[in-house]
Design a protein that fits this description.
Length: 148
Amino acid sequence: MQVIDAFRQVMEQELAIIEQLIETGQTKRKVISDSAQLSSVVDQERALLTSLEQTERERCQLFDVMAPGQDLHTWLATTAETDLAHQVHGLRAKYQDLQQINQLNQQLIQESLNLVQYCLNIFVAEPPMIYTNPKTQAASKSIIDRKV
């Protein structure tokens, strides 16, 4: 097998993994409020990221053999392999899609955490600091007793 064929194959593997990560990101968005399912999706995502890292290392090694001393942008501008150039551009577009999905998921997770924090603050809120007559006790409105 020639180096360029191996490079094509690794590019296809990397593209497939990124597409799986995109699906996982979309699934994560749907189950973001269910911690058990979210944990399962995150585990799948972690496994996919490990295989993506390995595939990316292979791709970089093959590229160094295929075009020593060049960067990808220079090589793409001078290569006659148009199908490979289209694969690289498709891979770049998928990376951008994945990045947008991950940013949206991070925002949704942050909003969920903010909501949880808000709810916790409501339950354990301190009584307002106002002057009251020491002989009368104000009725506590808090559900949770914070005394230890």
